[in-house]
Design a protein that fits this description.
Elements: E1 11-16, H1 24-35, E2 41-45, H2 53-63, E3 71-76, E4 87-92, E5 95-100, H3 106-111, E6 116-120, H4 132-145, E7 154-156, E8 179-186, E9 192-197, H5 201-207, E10 212-213, E11 222-224, E12 236-240, E13 245-249, H6 255-259, E14 266-271
Parallel strand pairs: 1-2, 1-3, 3-5, 11-12
Antiparallel strand pairs: 4-5, 4-6, 6-7, 8-9, 8-14, 9-13, 10-14, 12-13
Helix pairs in contact: 1-4
Length: 272
């Protein structure tokens, strides 16, 4: 079987777009408890917007470092459920991630050290073609949490062999100056998190300008700010948020609602 990739009774962390109104999360957890009864279950989130792979990739990227070790992450945002897309197992330190091959692992692979990547085949029989999380990915995660090696569950593959994130395009005509970034997440406070990672050269270049313009936000200037409270009235703050990415925010107001911003939208910025 090979050397176990995690210790027996590893925590299983869950990230899905299932929500809590339906029985799907309960059925998934029930299957995991049956097959890995010694493992603790941890919810990262079940509130990913349905089918929003980019948002799920962001949640995984910013959460993985905060999870205990050893841990198996079961990440399922899977609009292609039932198709021929495969299942992936990725290892970073003493954490394993099980996910569909649809771009959900893209940010994780880009920003975290990788010790191994495998492609797993489905079992010979599946209870349902529309609930692979419960019937395929869940049992796979449970077996890894019990100590089975990833090498015994799949064939090695390289990061360049897996599917990238879907690419969003700017809604307006191409710009000759500035830069564009997608909206990865809008939190419950209306803070709009961009695909602009702190510490990157692109972030350094963008935040070097004292004021920016974002056409989607009208004539309201965008200024770099270190905290929400430091955002002056009548401006939008470009804030280095707690998740390692830059976000747009207002001081004690809901920015996304005010300007009609939405998940997946590509925002353009240019210096004033």
């Amino acid at each position: 079987m090979g050397t176990p990739d995690v210790q027996i009774s590893a925590t299983i962390a869950l990230l899905t777009d299932f929500g809590l109104a339906d029985p799907y999360v309960g059925q998934l957890k029930g299957r995991l408890i049956r097959e890995a009864p010694q493992s603790a279950l941890l919810d990262i989130s079940h509130g990913v917007v349905p089918h929003q792979i980019e948002q799920g990739a962001f949640f995984l990227d910013v959460s993985i470092a905060h999870l205990p070790q050893p841990c198996v992450v079961l990440a399922v945002v899977d609009p292609g459920v039932g198709t021929q897309r495969g299942a992936l197992i990725a290892r970073s330190e003493d954490r394993l991630v099980v996910a569909p091959d649809n771009g959900l692992l893209a940010l994780f692979l880009k920003h975290h050290p990788l010790q191994g990547l495998w492609r797993a085949s489905p079992p010979k029989e599946l209870q349902s073609a529309t609930f692979h999380a419960r019937d395929w990915f869940g049992p796979l995660a449970a077996s890894l949490a019990r100590g089975k090696s990833a090498a015994a569950c799949g064939e090695p593959c390289a990061p360049e062999q897996i599917r990238p994130l879907p690419q969003n395009r700017p809604e307006h005509a191409p710009h000759t100056t500035g830069a564009s970034w997608p909206v990865l997440h809008i939190d419950r406070f209306g803070n709009t998190i961009l695909g602009l990672r702190q510490g990157s050269s692109a972030a350094a270049e963008l935040t070097a300008a004292p004021q920016l313009r974002c056409p989607a936000c009208g004539d309201t200037p965008v200024i770099p700010a270190q905290t929400y409270a430091a955002i002056p009235p009548g401006t939008i703050g470009l804030v280095p948020g707690s998740q390692g990415y830059y976000e747009l925010a207002l001081n004690q107001d809901v920015l996304a609602q005010r300007f009609g911003l939405r998940l997946g939208q590509v925002l353009h910025f240019e210096p004033l």
